[in-house]
């Protein structure tokens, strides 16, 4: 009789790694040797649960309560403090929905809220309060989203966003792109995703095969806020994505205590480039309730950006922008 191969010898698929994410703040802190950290909040974690893939946690520095990756995911008391000007729908998404899961704010581009799920929960995220679960484009087999796009010949670019669109299975994504392939006015596809950074195993053979055979030029906009988010597994994921022919860009959010220094920003651009990723946007924080402690004042953001311009080659300088509800593009600062 031939014994079955022990399961642990098989490489674990991304879905298993996804399910195995850390969800208990105490477990995360104890892994980092930080059992007694003041300001960590159960109530904040109840409002928006902690979620961190183990591979991402492994990139955090042991014993450092100020670790820039840890600060992005740790639920804190400060989130519960109401701050004037910080609201639930900071970017006006509720008003901009054109159909189920389709947000059409900018000319020529439609954003599909493909799913509400993410592999990591980022404390600064404007989506933390948005009831996306009921309003995702995938909820009805994509039909309504695809019909919304088909009905508007001015839409040339479809942007898959969320949540994180790569939290959907590859067959589900392929069903969408198969349907979109029948629409002549669609010319480009873009993905906005944090998964290749926080769970690089997501970039598996099936995903690469799907991307390679898409009929349009593809841009993949990943989301890393700090150079330490890159490691050899992320490098391998980026190389695979590039091998599909996709253009790789990074967007980051300017976050106090995470990446609000010249050195941190320069390192992010340079580390991204080493992985084959060019900087795209550096977003000024959306003023969403619970995220006020991450805000960098506009003056400081502009001064930082000017210093980045002096230090970095032009192609490694992200555009500093803010999203303003009702405007036809991101607003350059
Ligand atoms: C940010 C955003 C886009 C993309 O804007 P670009 O400047 O093209 O990157 C498109 N639609 C919506 C609703 C957005 O919020
Ligand atoms: S949408 Fe992006 S920024 Fe927001 S929680 Fe998900 S991965 Fe993080």
What does this structure look like?
The chain has 2 domains: 14-80, no CATH class; 94-332, Aldolase class I (TIM Barrel). It is an alpha/beta fold. The chain has 13 helices and 10 strands. The mean pLDDT is 92. Strands 1-2-3-4-5-6-7-8-9-10 form a 10-stranded mixed beta sheet. A hairpin with an 8-residue loop joins strand 9 and strand 10. The relative contact order is 0.12. Helices cover 31% and strands 15% of the residues. It has helices spanning 14-19, 25-31, 42-47, 54-57, 68-73, 93-96, 143-150, 170-180, 195-198, 205-212, 232-243, 262-274, 298-311, and strands at 97-99, 102-106, 109-113, 157-161, 188-193, 218-223, 247-253, 278-283, 319-322, 331-332. Bound molecules: pyridoxal-5'-phosphate and iron/sulfur cluster. Iron/sulfur cluster (SF4) is lined by residues 118, 120-122, 125, 127, 162-164, 194, 223.
């Amino acid at each position: 009789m031939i014994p079955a191969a022990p399961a642990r010898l098989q490489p674990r698929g991304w879905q298993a790694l996804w399910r195995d994410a850390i969800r208990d703040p105490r477990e995360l802190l104890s892994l980092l040797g930080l059992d007694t950290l003041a300001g960590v909040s159960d109530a904040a974690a109840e409002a928006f649960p902690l979620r961190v893939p183990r591979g991402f946690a492994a990139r955090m520095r042991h014993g450092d309560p100020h670790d820039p990756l840890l600060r992005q995911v740790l639920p804190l008391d400060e989130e519960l403090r109401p701050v004037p000007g910080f609201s639930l729908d900071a970017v006006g998404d509720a008003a901009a929905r054109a159909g189920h899961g389709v947000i059409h704010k900018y000319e020529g581009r439609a954003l599909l809220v493909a799913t509400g799920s993410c592999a990591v929960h980022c404390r600064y995220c404007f989506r933390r309060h948005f009831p996306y679960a009921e309003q995702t484009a995938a909820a009805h087999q994509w039909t309504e989203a695809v019909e919304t796009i088909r009905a508007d010949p001015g839409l040339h670019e479809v942007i898959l966003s969320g949540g994180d669109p790569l939290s959907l299975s590859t067959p589900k994504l392929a069903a969408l792109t198969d349907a979109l392939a029948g629409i002549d006015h669609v010319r480009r596809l873009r993905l906005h995703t944090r998964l290749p950074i926080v769970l690089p195993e997501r970039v598996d053979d099936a995903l690469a095969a799907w991307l390679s055979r898409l009929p349009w030029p593809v841009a993949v906009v990943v989301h890393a806020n700090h150079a330490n988010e890159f490691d050899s597994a992320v490098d391998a994921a980026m190389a695979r994505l590039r091998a599909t022919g996709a253009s790789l860009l990074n967007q980051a959010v300017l976050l106090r205590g995470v990446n609000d220094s010249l050195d941190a920003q320069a390192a992010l651009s340079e580390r991204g480039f080493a992985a084959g990723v060019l900087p795209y946007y550096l977003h000024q924080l959306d003023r969403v309730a619970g995220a006020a402690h991450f805000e960098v004042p506009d003056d400081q953001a502009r001064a930082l950006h000017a210093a980045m311009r002096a230090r970095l080659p032009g192609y490694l300088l992200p555009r500093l922008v803010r999203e303003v509800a009702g405007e036809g593009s991101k607003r350059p600062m």
